[in-house]
# Entry
Amino acid sequence: MSELPPNPANNEGAESAQKTAEQAPKTDETAAKLAKLEEQVKAEQQKYVYLYADFDNYKKRVAREREDLLKYGFEKAARDVLQVADNLQRAVDHIPESTDKNLRSGIQMVLDQLNQTLQRHGVEAVASAGKPFDPNVHEAVGQQPSESPAGTVIQEHQKGYVLHGRLLRPARVVISAGSATQGNGANG
# Structure
């Protein structure tokens, strides 16, 4: 009665079959986990791309706002300074002829210097006299019959100004209603 020792070859085969059977579910689990992790990585990458695009847009917007602030930050002060320039111009226009010429030229020099300073900062006068009425830069305060074509600016009560192309103050103007004879002929 001799017992046969266990056959190592048979044992290995049985163990390997058992390992293969155990690995099959583990392989499916591993593949499922791997697929899930790949989906998470893709989702995180997509979030990163969106976040990067948002940040890039934010940087562009901030740069644009900073540029506008530097360009148009002088707007409120310019409006106030324009009133001073208007008053100096009125003073020059109404100085009596009997006034000392040096005083007159001194005030004119101050006005010129103020206008040059405004120009250096981007403030420019709106051309009005003889131009067609433009509601974007003109404010009509009256209408009169004249020899000029209807809708033409014939008189400027207050100068208009723009700051780097943006309207600071509209020009207050009187526009032509056409000639008086044209108006009578149309009615009669």
Residues 183-188 have pLDDT under 50 and may be disordered. The helical segments are 8-72, 75-93, 101-120, 180-187. The domain at 123-188 is CATH 2.30.22.10 (Nucleotide Exchange Factor Grpe; Chain A, domain 2). The CA atoms of residues 157 and 172 lie 5 Å apart.
